[in-house]
Design brief:
Rossmann fold; 5 strands
Length: 235
């Protein structure tokens, strides 16, 4: 019997690769996305389109309005940083407790499905310094999952959080996905895309994505704003 796994799925490059890995490892993937008031909601449209294509058994989209909390450039009227030097500092695009909220929903759905495996595409190498992408955080949540659920307490199984991308460079992530048949033209990673879905080319997420394609020796198949595309051609 094929084991079920809940896969957190934003529709971006990392989560799409993560979904492909879960499927390749023999899991029946159940994709979980969130409409949380994010300014880059066009990414969610990509998730809706791509989840069936990627082999998701089911795709659940949960509505949570994190704009009521704010505190992030992704959920409040704050400017998305552009062209900054990416370091270990935590940028304003950090959404307070986002992965904790998302993983809590994933854990609840996993318990209902009878699944004990949860995949999340966090990365601690090429990332923007978010504290909830670190191995220490993942280990802590996994411990919580096995303390806080009926299924674990009744010894029906042990929850495991899978983080297959956590120690990979963005280039390695892209090569892994391509080897698994991922079509990255169906993904979007930009924090501040246009209404038409053009990536800005200058936010942290775009810069990391473009860095990954350069490392992989490939051209990113998605479309960027004309100004961004011109700058990319000149580099």
């Amino acid at each position: 019997m094929t084991k079920k796994a809940v896969v957190l799925y934003s529709g971006g490059l990392d989560s799409t690769t993560c979904l492909a890995i879960a499927r390749a490892e023999g899991f029946a993937p159940y994709a979980l996305s969130f409409a949380y008031g994010q300014r880059h909601a066009v990414e969610l449209a990509k998730a809706r389109e791509n989840a069936p294509r990627m082999g998701a058994i089911e795709h659940l989209v949960v509505d949570i309005d994190l704009r009521q909390i704010g505190g992030s450039a992704l959920t409040a009227e704050l400017a998305v940083p552009k062209g900054r030097k990416i370091d270990d500092s935590i940028p304003v695009t950090y959404v307070p407790a986002r992965n904790t909220v998302f993983l809590s929903f994933a854990l609840g759905w996993a318990e209902v499905l009878g699944a004990f495996d949860i995949f999340i595409g966090v990365n601690a190498l090429d990332y923007s310094g978010y504290p909830d992408c670190r191995p220490e955080y993942i280990a802590a949540f996994e411990n919580l999952a096995n303390l806080a659920t009926r299924a674990a307490v009744e010894k029906k199984g042990t929850y495991r959080l899978h983080t297959p991308l956590i120690s990979l460079s963005k280039g390695e992530i892209i090569r892994t996905g391509l080897n698994l048949g991922v079509d990255y033209s169906h993904t979007l990673s930009c924090y501040d895309p246009t209404a038409e879905g053009l990536a800005c080319g200058a936010c942290d997420s775009c810069l990391l994505r473009l860095k990954g394609f350069r490392e992989a020796g490939l051209q990113d198949p998605i479309n960027y704003l004309p100004v961004a595309e011109k700058e990319l051609e000149e580099k």
